[in-house]
Specification:
The chain is an all-alpha fold and about 100 residues long. The chain has helices spanning about 5-60, 65-75. It contains two helices and no strands. It is found in: Cell inner membrane; Cell membrane.
Amino acid sequence: MTRTDALILAVLSLAVMLSAVAVVYAKYLTRSHFGQLQELRAQRDAIDVEWNRLRLEEAALSTHARVERKARHELGMFAPRLGDVLLIEEGGHGKKP
């Protein structure tokens, strides 16, 4: 084996070793990122569940019957009587005849 052949063999061996280390490192990064992805998906799912629960709660708290009951009991509000209603007609303000 000549000196040139030995040098080529050494360079190729080094290249094979470096590529093997690169493959192992890439596999490590892939697994690491996959674990992070799974954690983020779990967080997303938990947030979706919480969002749906909050939407249901908002719908329950904003029903017309509940709002009216709160207005009557807590704020002392009531529907206006017929005599309390005053109808104001628009009198052509800003319109051309």
